[in-house]
Amino acid sequence: MKTLARDEALLMLNKVPEVTLYFWIIKTMATTVGETGADFLNFNLNFGLTGTSLVMAGLLAVFLFIQLRARKYVPWLYWMNVVLISIVGTLITDNLVDNFGIALETTTAAFGIALLATFALWYAREKTLSIHSIVTTRRELFYWAAILFTFALGTAAGDLVAESMKLGYANSALMFGALIAAVTVAYYGFKANAVLAFWIAYILTRPLGASCGDWLSQPIANGGLGLGTVTTSLIFLTTILGLVVFLSVTRKDVIPRTA
Fold first, then answer.
1. Rounded to two decimals, what is the model's pTM?
2. What is the CB-side half-sphere exposure of residue 159 using CA atoms within 13 A?
3. Closest among 226, 199, 207 to 161, alpha carbons compared
4. Mind telling me which residue stretches traverse the membrane in this protein (predicted)?
């Protein structure tokens, strides 16, 4: 088994992008699209929550299969999966809350536990949680499982703060933005653990993006700017597309081979 994993690592380049400013911009925008895109399909196209969930889960399964078959990081394919998994993560939480009546406090705690369990199992098997080591299929599966739970957790936590706690979309965005800034200061100013800082920031970008998406798209009467889900989704999808094309050409976010 160890020999097989080592041989696979020699053949497979790192499957995820380097953590740059571009990474965080696209990631945050992808989370916004996850929020507004799910709302657009659910309400504007009248797919309904169940229909939207089935369609997006099917699309994610197709693109994730293609991603797992690839032998290196492909920008458009990777970020397509992030956008889709963002939407699916949002829908999982929405289904539990709206269809099954589970409280946001419960879903937040449950997804938090699920994410910690994923990290624990990942570390127990691989002895690392670093994204610079996603060079085997098993590690990539752990990676995408963790990503899914971060989106579901972020959705639940964001809705809990913005809606149940009545903080509002703009204030929620400011709060989560301040938390990300604190993590950044801890990492650069106090040399906090890089892997821990990355995953904390990754989790926090989900409610930040969701709060920004709701703030931009929701009607003014509900505390938003009234742009609507269509306009908001198009703005962010166009920006993501432009950045992904740029990265595909420049390869600024490719992690060099280290083994």
1. 0.86
2. 19
3. 207
4. 21-41, 47-66, 73-93, 99-121, 141-162, 168-188, 195-216, 228-249
Ramachandran assignment for 127, one of left (phi > 0), alpha (psi -120 to 50 degrees), beta (any other):
left
Tell me which residue of 86, 91, 93, 89 sits closest to 108, measured CA to CA.
Answer: 93
Residue pair 49/95 in contact (Cβ under 8 Å)? The answer is yes
Give me the torsion for CA of 57, 63, 64, 65, rounded to 10°.
110
C-alpha distances (whole Å) from 179 to each of 1, 106, 153, 202 are 41, 22, 16, 11
Provide the token pair at 230.
């269509």
Closest CA to 215 of 179, 165, 162, 176: 162
Cα–Cα distance measured from residue 69 to residue 142, given in angstroms and rounded to the nearest whole number: 15
Residue 83: how many CA atoms within 13 Å on its side-chain side? 23
For Cα atoms 31, 61, 21, give the angle at the middle one, nearest 5 degrees: 30
> Do you know the residue count of the chain?
259
> What distance in Å separates the CA atoms of residue 59 and residue 79, rounded to the nearest whole number?
14
pLDDT in tens, 4-55: 444 444 446 688 998 899 999 999 888 888 777 777 777 777 788 888 889 8
Weakest mean pLDDT among 73-77, 85-89, 254-258: 254-258
The answer to whether 26 and 244 have CB atoms below 8 angstroms apart is: yes
Average pLDDT estimate for 111-133:
94
How buried is 250 (Cβ within 10 angstroms: 0-12 exposed, 13-18 middle, 19+ buried)? exposed
For 175-200, the pLDDT digits (tens) are 989 999 999 999 999 999 999 999 99
Q: Which residue has the tokens 């703005």?
A: 235
Q: Where are the alpha helices (DSSP H) in 12-103?
A: 21-39, 48-69, 75-94
More confident site: 256 or 238: 238
